Amino acid sequence: MSDLQASSNLDNEFIDKIIKSQEHWQSTIDAVQDYIFVIDRNHVIRNANLSFARRFQKHPREIIGLNVDELLCFEIPHPDMFTPEQDGIISSREITVKDSTYVISVFPARYDEEDVFVYVMKDITELINLKNKLYYAYKLASIGRLVSGVAHELNNPLTGILGYAEILSLKVQDEGIKKDLAKISKSAERCKVIIDSLLCFSRQQATQRSLEYINDIIDKIVELRAYWHRNQNIEIVREYEADMPLCYIDTQQIQQVVLNILMNAEQAVSEAGREGKIVIRTWHDKVNQKLMLSIADNGIGIPKENLSRIFDPFFTTKPVNKGTGLGLSISYGIVLEHDGMIHVESREGEGSVFTIQIPFK
Ligand SMILES: Nc1ncnc2c1ncn2[C@@H]1O[C@H](COP(=O)(O)OP(=O)(O)OP(=O)(O)O)[C@@H](O)[C@H]1O
Ligand SMILES: [Mg+2]
């Protein structure tokens, strides 16, 4: 073998090694499920991993050279917007796009003489949901403990008021006094209803689950309210997925959730003063194995500033005697017990959609 041939073989071996090493690096970043991409100062993509390219149903090769803002349809935080932490090496920001929240970290790097920026985008939506769930669970539990003590304390004197009002009304002949006593009884009855719902809210009872069809559960509640719907001219549309699998749930509790949300929807459409329409949908999220249920109304909607408060215990916009502000917090607690989630989308003046998801098992 001549010297020339030997050196050419060495060159080839060397090039092979470089190509292999490049392939290894690509498969290393492709193995990461977070989005990884490299951009230059003009936001042009210089490199990307498989997970990021797949978001656009493309291969990493096909997105190199494209502008990242156009591809993502939202602007990523510019490198200048990051405040460098120690040594100016790494910095992170949280952004929310539609229903997803990401932590974006940026790492400055060099391609030859050029400054480039390595972005790592981690989807933390599930983590945030979990954090919210824990926050609510904690809040509900602490308020529940407080409330149950007060409710029990109030129950005894209230029973006294009701009992003595009844005894007195049997003793007196005067119609005027009888009427006043009836008013006392009515007010005390109203307090009893509120106390019962407080106790129901704070009850820490375990769920009693069985395998049920959600569509049947909803039907029973809709039948229960049918008279009211006819009376108020509210159209109920049921869009059920026909072959919904059985779901492992506590029938009574889920009935209560559906009833609470349905009654809120009824009140919202009545207040809007237009022809009321409530659409109840069920479907099966096959990917995540979840039962999905949504109740949409064309009522008054919820102002933006109230959206984060409606699940809080005792938050109500209804007049005194009309609402206790417990319906949604009880429902939230029940859905949480089923390892599920409720969320709401609403536009003031147009209507609201409450969506519930519950894992099948
Ligand atoms: N479909 C809806 N449309 C508009 N606002 C709603 C809707 N559902 C709930 N809300 C708002 O959320 C608040 C809290 O609802 P929640 O069911 O917890 O209590 P409430 O209906 O006021 O009283 P309660 O259910 O205890 O009788 C309501 O007062 C209302 O402002
Ligand atoms: Mg309510």
CATH fold-level label of the largest domain: Heat Shock Protein 90
CATH class of the largest domain: Alpha Beta
CATH architecture of the largest domain: 2-Layer Sandwich
Ligands (ions, cofactors included) = adenosine-5'-triphosphate, magnesium ion
The radius of gyration over CA amounts to 30 Å
Query: In CATH, what is the homologous superfamily of the largest domain?
Result: Histidine kinase-like ATPase, C-terminal domain
Strand content: 15-25%
Q: If you had to describe this structure to a student in words, what would you say it looks like?
A:
The protein has a five-stranded antiparallel β-sheet with strand order 2-1-5-4-3. Strands 7-9-10-12-11 form a five-stranded mixed β-sheet, with helices on one face. With 361 residues, the chain is an alpha+beta fold. Strand 4 and strand 5 form a beta hairpin. Helix content is 47%, strand content 24%. The model has no long low-confidence stretch (mean pLDDT 88). The chain starts with a helix and ends with a strand. It folds into three domains: 32-123, 2-Layer Sandwich (Beta-Lactamase), CATH 3.30.450; 125-204, Helix Hairpins, CATH 1.10.287; 208-361, Heat Shock Protein 90, CATH 3.30.565.10. Bound molecules: adenosine-5'-triphosphate and magnesium ion. Residues 260, 263-264, 323, 327 line the site of magnesium ion.
List keywords for this structure.
Beta-Lactamase; 24% strand; 5-stranded antiparallel sheet; Heat Shock Protein 90; 3 domains; Helix Hairpins; single chain; binds magnesium ion; 361 residues; 5-stranded mixed sheet; alpha+beta; elongated; binds adenosine-5'-triphosphate; 12 strands
